Amino acid sequence: MVWKAASDLPPAAPGPDPGPAGAEERYVPPGVSGAAKILVVGPLGVGKTTLIGAVSEIRPLSTEAVMTQAGARADRPARGGKTTTTVALDFGRITLGGELVLYLFGTPGQQRFLPAWRDLSRGALGALALVDTRDLGAAFDALGNLEELGLAFAVAVNDFPDRPRYTEDELRDALDLLPETPLVECDARDPRSATLALIALTRHLLDLAEAPAPTAGTPAARGERRSAPPVHPGASGS
Ligand SMILES: Nc1nc2c(ncn2[C@@H]2O[C@H](COP(=O)(O)OP(=O)(O)OP(=O)(O)O)[C@@H](O)[C@H]2O)c(=O)[nH]1
Ligand SMILES: [Mg+2]
Protein backbone atom coordinates (compact mmCIF):
# COMPACT_ATOMS: atom_id res chain seq x y z
CA MET A 1 0.00 0.00 0.00
CA VAL A 2 1.29 3.50 -0.72
CA TRP A 3 -0.12 6.62 0.83
CA LYS A 4 -1.40 9.35 -1.43
CA ALA A 5 -0.95 12.99 -0.71
CA ALA A 6 -3.83 14.41 1.28
CA SER A 7 -4.78 16.55 -1.72
CA ASP A 8 -5.34 13.36 -3.78
CA LEU A 9 -7.76 11.87 -1.29
CA PRO A 10 -11.48 11.95 -1.93
CA PRO A 11 -13.35 14.42 0.25
CA ALA A 12 -13.86 13.04 3.75
CA ALA A 13 -17.29 11.58 4.35
CA PRO A 14 -19.27 13.87 6.64
CA GLY A 15 -19.36 12.61 10.22
CA PRO A 16 -22.44 12.79 12.40
CA ASP A 17 -23.80 16.31 12.83
CA PRO A 18 -22.08 17.59 15.96
CA GLY A 19 -24.92 20.06 16.53
CA PRO A 20 -24.24 23.36 18.18
CA ALA A 21 -20.65 23.46 19.40
CA GLY A 22 -21.71 23.70 23.03
CA ALA A 23 -19.81 22.40 26.02
CA GLU A 24 -22.33 19.56 26.38
CA GLU A 25 -21.03 18.02 23.15
CA ARG A 26 -17.40 18.40 24.10
CA TYR A 27 -17.34 17.43 27.76
CA VAL A 28 -18.55 14.28 29.47
CA PRO A 29 -21.94 14.51 31.19
CA PRO A 30 -21.84 15.73 34.81
CA GLY A 31 -23.03 12.41 36.31
CA VAL A 32 -20.08 10.46 34.96
CA SER A 33 -18.08 8.73 37.69
CA GLY A 34 -15.75 6.45 35.72
CA ALA A 35 -13.93 6.15 32.43
CA ALA A 36 -12.30 3.32 30.54
CA LYS A 37 -10.15 3.08 27.46
CA ILE A 38 -11.41 0.37 25.12
CA LEU A 39 -9.90 -0.93 21.89
CA VAL A 40 -12.05 -1.89 18.91
CA VAL A 41 -10.09 -4.46 16.92
CA GLY A 42 -10.47 -6.86 14.03
CA PRO A 43 -9.23 -7.54 10.51
CA LEU A 44 -9.34 -5.26 7.51
CA GLY A 45 -12.84 -4.12 6.64
CA VAL A 46 -14.62 -5.83 9.54
CA GLY A 47 -16.42 -2.62 10.59
CA LYS A 48 -14.28 -0.97 13.28
CA THR A 49 -14.51 2.57 11.87
CA THR A 50 -18.21 2.02 11.19
CA LEU A 51 -18.94 0.91 14.76
CA ILE A 52 -17.08 3.79 16.40
CA GLY A 53 -18.76 6.25 14.05
CA ALA A 54 -22.18 4.75 14.84
CA VAL A 55 -21.93 5.06 18.62
CA SER A 56 -19.71 8.06 19.22
CA GLU A 57 -21.33 11.06 20.89
CA ILE A 58 -18.50 13.27 19.69
CA ARG A 59 -17.42 13.68 16.09
CA PRO A 60 -15.21 10.59 15.66
CA LEU A 61 -11.59 10.98 14.71
CA SER A 62 -10.87 8.85 11.69
CA THR A 63 -7.62 8.41 9.77
CA GLU A 64 -8.64 6.92 6.44
CA ALA A 65 -6.27 6.64 3.49
CA VAL A 66 -6.91 5.38 -0.02
CA MET A 67 -5.87 1.76 -0.63
CA THR A 68 -3.89 1.04 -3.76
CA GLN A 69 -2.73 -2.08 -5.60
CA ALA A 70 0.65 -1.81 -3.88
CA GLY A 71 -0.92 -3.03 -0.63
CA ALA A 72 -2.29 -6.17 -2.24
CA ARG A 73 1.02 -7.98 -1.73
CA ALA A 74 0.96 -7.42 2.02
CA ASP A 75 -2.70 -7.27 3.00
CA ARG A 76 -5.79 -9.42 2.72
CA PRO A 77 -8.01 -8.22 -0.11
CA ALA A 78 -10.79 -5.89 0.98
CA ARG A 79 -14.40 -6.82 0.19
CA GLY A 80 -17.27 -4.95 -1.33
CA GLY A 81 -15.48 -2.21 -3.24
CA LYS A 82 -13.83 -0.82 -0.11
CA THR A 83 -11.43 1.93 -1.19
CA THR A 84 -10.05 3.34 2.07
CA THR A 85 -8.56 1.91 5.24
CA THR A 86 -7.68 3.22 8.70
CA VAL A 87 -3.96 3.92 8.89
CA ALA A 88 -3.51 5.18 12.44
CA LEU A 89 -6.56 4.95 14.65
CA ASP A 90 -10.24 5.70 15.07
CA PHE A 91 -11.34 7.54 18.18
CA GLY A 92 -14.77 8.09 19.67
CA ARG A 93 -16.56 8.40 22.99
CA ILE A 94 -19.74 6.91 24.40
CA THR A 95 -21.35 7.30 27.83
CA LEU A 96 -23.09 4.21 29.22
CA GLY A 97 -25.86 4.59 31.77
CA GLY A 98 -24.96 8.24 32.32
CA GLU A 99 -22.10 7.12 34.57
CA LEU A 100 -19.37 5.38 32.64
CA VAL A 101 -17.51 6.89 29.72
CA LEU A 102 -15.84 4.59 27.22
CA TYR A 103 -13.07 6.08 25.12
CA LEU A 104 -12.99 3.95 21.99
CA PHE A 105 -9.77 3.45 20.05
CA GLY A 106 -10.02 1.59 16.74
CA THR A 107 -6.85 -0.17 15.65
CA PRO A 108 -5.68 -0.55 12.04
CA GLY A 109 -6.83 -3.86 10.53
CA GLN A 110 -3.57 -5.03 9.01
CA GLN A 111 -1.26 -7.19 11.11
CA ARG A 112 1.76 -5.18 9.93
CA PHE A 113 0.47 -2.31 12.10
CA LEU A 114 1.03 -4.36 15.28
CA PRO A 115 3.47 -1.77 16.69
CA ALA A 116 0.63 0.76 16.58
CA TRP A 117 -1.51 -1.69 18.57
CA ARG A 118 1.13 -1.81 21.28
CA ASP A 119 0.99 1.96 21.66
CA LEU A 120 -2.79 2.11 21.49
CA SER A 121 -3.22 -0.64 24.07
CA ARG A 122 -1.40 1.27 26.82
CA GLY A 123 -3.89 1.89 29.61
CA ALA A 124 -6.69 0.02 27.84
CA LEU A 125 -9.05 -1.99 30.02
CA GLY A 126 -10.32 -4.33 27.34
CA ALA A 127 -11.27 -4.75 23.70
CA LEU A 128 -14.22 -5.45 21.47
CA ALA A 129 -13.05 -7.86 18.75
CA LEU A 130 -15.14 -7.69 15.60
CA VAL A 131 -15.41 -10.88 13.57
CA ASP A 132 -16.63 -11.46 10.01
CA THR A 133 -17.82 -15.06 9.56
CA ARG A 134 -17.09 -14.85 5.82
CA ASP A 135 -13.42 -15.17 6.80
CA LEU A 136 -13.00 -16.51 10.32
CA GLY A 137 -9.30 -17.12 9.79
CA ALA A 138 -8.77 -13.38 9.44
CA ALA A 139 -9.81 -12.96 13.08
CA PHE A 140 -6.94 -15.01 14.48
CA ASP A 141 -4.30 -12.31 14.20
CA ALA A 142 -6.38 -9.83 16.19
CA LEU A 143 -7.35 -12.37 18.87
CA GLY A 144 -3.73 -13.49 19.14
CA ASN A 145 -2.60 -9.89 19.51
CA LEU A 146 -5.06 -9.33 22.36
CA GLU A 147 -3.77 -12.39 24.16
CA GLU A 148 -0.21 -11.28 23.67
CA LEU A 149 -1.10 -7.87 25.10
CA GLY A 150 -3.01 -9.47 28.01
CA LEU A 151 -6.23 -7.62 27.18
CA ALA A 152 -9.62 -9.05 28.14
CA PHE A 153 -12.12 -8.95 25.30
CA ALA A 154 -15.60 -9.70 24.01
CA VAL A 155 -16.28 -10.92 20.48
CA ALA A 156 -18.93 -9.28 18.26
CA VAL A 157 -19.90 -11.05 15.04
CA ASN A 158 -20.66 -8.35 12.52
CA ASP A 159 -23.86 -8.76 10.57
CA PHE A 160 -22.86 -8.76 6.92
CA PRO A 161 -25.85 -9.82 4.76
CA ASP A 162 -24.07 -12.65 2.94
CA ARG A 163 -22.29 -14.05 5.96
CA PRO A 164 -22.44 -17.78 6.73
CA ARG A 165 -24.52 -18.60 9.80
CA TYR A 166 -22.92 -20.68 12.53
CA THR A 167 -24.20 -21.78 15.90
CA GLU A 168 -22.67 -20.22 18.99
CA ASP A 169 -20.91 -23.50 19.79
CA GLU A 170 -19.43 -23.68 16.29
CA LEU A 171 -18.15 -20.14 16.55
CA ARG A 172 -16.70 -20.64 20.03
CA ASP A 173 -14.99 -23.75 18.80
CA ALA A 174 -13.62 -22.13 15.64
CA LEU A 175 -12.35 -19.08 17.52
CA ASP A 176 -11.21 -21.17 20.49
CA LEU A 177 -13.07 -19.00 23.01
CA LEU A 178 -13.51 -19.73 26.69
CA PRO A 179 -17.16 -20.25 27.79
CA GLU A 180 -17.13 -16.98 29.77
CA THR A 181 -15.89 -14.83 26.87
CA PRO A 182 -18.91 -12.85 25.63
CA LEU A 183 -19.93 -13.66 22.05
CA VAL A 184 -22.62 -11.39 20.59
CA GLU A 185 -23.99 -10.51 17.18
CA CYS A 186 -24.04 -6.91 16.10
CA ASP A 187 -24.61 -4.64 13.15
CA ALA A 188 -21.78 -2.11 13.37
CA ARG A 189 -23.88 0.43 11.45
CA ASP A 190 -26.67 0.37 14.02
CA PRO A 191 -25.96 2.53 17.11
CA ARG A 192 -28.22 0.44 19.34
CA SER A 193 -26.76 -2.87 18.24
CA ALA A 194 -23.19 -1.59 18.50
CA THR A 195 -23.90 -0.13 21.97
CA LEU A 196 -25.26 -3.49 23.15
CA ALA A 197 -22.00 -5.13 22.08
CA LEU A 198 -20.05 -2.56 24.10
CA ILE A 199 -22.33 -3.17 27.09
CA ALA A 200 -21.62 -6.92 26.86
CA LEU A 201 -17.90 -6.13 26.96
CA THR A 202 -18.30 -3.70 29.87
CA ARG A 203 -20.28 -6.25 31.92
CA HIS A 204 -17.55 -8.79 31.27
CA LEU A 205 -14.83 -6.38 32.38
CA LEU A 206 -16.78 -5.60 35.56
CA ASP A 207 -17.20 -9.33 36.24
CA LEU A 208 -13.47 -9.86 35.79
CA ALA A 209 -12.70 -6.95 38.10
CA GLU A 210 -14.92 -8.44 40.82
CA ALA A 211 -13.76 -12.05 40.37
CA PRO A 212 -11.07 -13.48 42.64
CA ALA A 213 -7.63 -13.46 41.04
CA PRO A 214 -7.20 -16.53 38.79
CA THR A 215 -4.83 -19.23 39.92
CA ALA A 216 -1.49 -18.92 38.17
CA GLY A 217 -1.04 -21.51 35.48
CA THR A 218 -4.72 -22.08 34.72
CA PRO A 219 -5.69 -21.53 31.10
CA ALA A 220 -8.15 -18.88 32.20
CA ALA A 221 -5.52 -16.77 33.93
CA ARG A 222 -6.84 -13.61 32.33
CA GLY A 223 -7.06 -15.16 28.84
CA GLU A 224 -10.26 -15.34 26.80
CA ARG A 225 -9.29 -18.37 24.74
CA ARG A 226 -8.48 -21.96 25.55
CA SER A 227 -5.15 -22.16 23.78
CA ALA A 228 -2.75 -20.28 21.57
CA PRO A 229 -4.29 -19.01 18.33
CA PRO A 230 -4.54 -21.90 15.87
CA VAL A 231 -2.35 -21.69 12.83
CA HIS A 232 -4.71 -21.09 9.93
CA PRO A 233 -3.61 -21.39 6.34
CA GLY A 234 -5.55 -18.29 5.40
CA ALA A 235 -4.36 -16.14 8.29
CA SER A 236 -2.29 -13.20 7.15
CA GLY A 237 1.23 -13.16 8.44
CA SER A 238 2.62 -9.91 7.10
N1 LIG B 1 -23.88 -4.92 5.98
C1 LIG B 1 -23.00 -4.46 6.85
N2 LIG B 1 -21.98 -3.71 6.40
C2 LIG B 1 -21.08 -3.26 7.29
C3 LIG B 1 -21.20 -3.55 8.67
N3 LIG B 1 -20.16 -3.00 9.31
C4 LIG B 1 -19.41 -2.38 8.37
N4 LIG B 1 -19.97 -2.52 7.16
C5 LIG B 1 -19.44 -2.00 5.90
O1 LIG B 1 -18.17 -2.61 5.69
C6 LIG B 1 -17.29 -1.68 5.09
C7 LIG B 1 -15.98 -1.62 5.88
O2 LIG B 1 -16.22 -1.02 7.12
P1 LIG B 1 -15.10 -0.20 7.93
O3 LIG B 1 -15.78 0.35 9.12
O4 LIG B 1 -14.37 0.73 7.05
O5 LIG B 1 -14.12 -1.37 8.35
P2 LIG B 1 -12.78 -1.23 9.20
O6 LIG B 1 -12.74 -2.43 10.08
O7 LIG B 1 -12.68 0.08 9.86
O8 LIG B 1 -11.69 -1.37 8.05
P3 LIG B 1 -10.11 -1.04 8.12
O9 LIG B 1 -9.91 0.24 8.83
O10 LIG B 1 -9.71 -0.96 6.67
O11 LIG B 1 -9.47 -2.21 8.78
C8 LIG B 1 -18.03 -0.35 5.02
O12 LIG B 1 -18.52 -0.22 3.71
C9 LIG B 1 -19.17 -0.52 5.98
O13 LIG B 1 -20.30 0.23 5.60
C10 LIG B 1 -22.32 -4.33 9.11
O14 LIG B 1 -22.52 -4.62 10.30
N5 LIG B 1 -23.18 -4.76 8.17
MG1 LIG C 1 -11.20 1.47 9.75
What's the short story on this structure?
By secondary structure, the protein is of the alpha/beta class. 24% of the residues lie in helices and 22% in strands. The chain is built from 6 helices and 7 strands; from the N terminus they run αβαβββαβαβαβα.
Mind explaining what this structure looks like?
The chain has 238 residues and is an alpha/beta fold. The protein has a single domain, classed as Rossmann fold, CATH 3.40.50.300. The chain has 6 helices and 7 strands; from the N terminus they run H-E-H-E-E-E-H-E-H-E-H-E-H. A 7-stranded mixed beta sheet has the order 2-3-4-1-5-6-7, sandwiched between helices. Strand 3 (84-96) and strand 4 form a beta hairpin. Magnesium ion is lined by residues 48-49, 86, 90, 106.
Ligand set: guanosine-5'-triphosphate, magnesium ion
Q: If helices are DSSP runs of H or I spanning 4 or more residues, what is the number of helices? A: 6
Mean of all residue-level pLDDT scores:
81
How widely separated are the two ends?
12 Å
Features:
6 helices, globular, disordered C terminus, alpha/beta, 238 residues, binds guanosine-5'-triphosphate, 7-stranded mixed beta sheet, 7 strands, Rossmann fold, disordered N terminus, binds magnesium ion
Topology at a glance:
Elements: H1 23-26, E1 34-41, H2 48-55, E2 61-66, E3 84-96, E4 100-106, H3 114-120, E5 124-131, H4 139-149, E6 152-158, H5 168-175, E7 183-186, H6 191-210
Bound molecules: guanosine-5'-triphosphate (GTP) and magnesium ion (MG).
